[in-house]
Write a structure and sequence with these properties.
The chain is about 5% helix and about 40% strand. Strand 7 and strand 8 form a beta hairpin. It is mainly beta. It has 1 helix and 8 strands, in the order E-E-H-E-E-E-E-E-E.
Length: about 140
């Protein structure tokens, strides 16, 4: 009995990963096939050094062709030979900053309401409300007695 060799005409596997050039850092980031552009952009932004412009979205580019922009819910794909994925950076210069706790100054505090009453010759403050505004924080407090 003759054993026939099975010849495989299976197509070459498509990309095992996608590469996106981050124009802010110059680094190439790799992602699994099927990744959404919004997730990739967020992850790229998380890995940026402080002071580097943010990635706004991802586009596919090829010399002599109009770029193809990916919305946040679009799945990233490579369109073939010569096409590359890259980030589009914020031209207005929004940059990544490191969050640090900041102590409020007197200028950051604003007294909104003070209710006071006199009992005999002494004044009693019964209700004080104030707010503290910091660049990324807003706090409102009431002190009641």
């Amino acid at each position: 009995m003759a054993v026939e060799k099975e010849t495989s005409n299976a197509a070459e596997p498509t990309a095992v990963f996608l590469e996106v050039l981050c124009r802010s850092s110059g680094k190439v980031r790799r992602f699994a096939p099927g990744v959404k552009a919004g997730f990739a952009s967020s992850l790229i932004n998380l890995k940026l050094e402080p002071g580097v412009p943010f990635c706004l979205y991802i586009e596919a580019i090829k010399e002599g062709e109009e770029p193809i922009s990916f919305g946040p819910d679009s799945v990233l794909v490579i369109y073939g030979n010569g096409w590359k994925l890259q980030t589009v950076i914020d031209s207005k210069g929004s940059k990544r900053v490191v969050d640090r706790p900041v102590a409020p100054t007197k200028a950051d505090t604003q007294v909104l309401t003070v209710s006071a009453k006199f009992i005999g010759s002494r004044m009693h403050i019964s209700h004080t409300c104030f707010s503290i505004s910091l660049p990324q924080t807003c706090m409102y407090m009431c002190l009641c007695s």
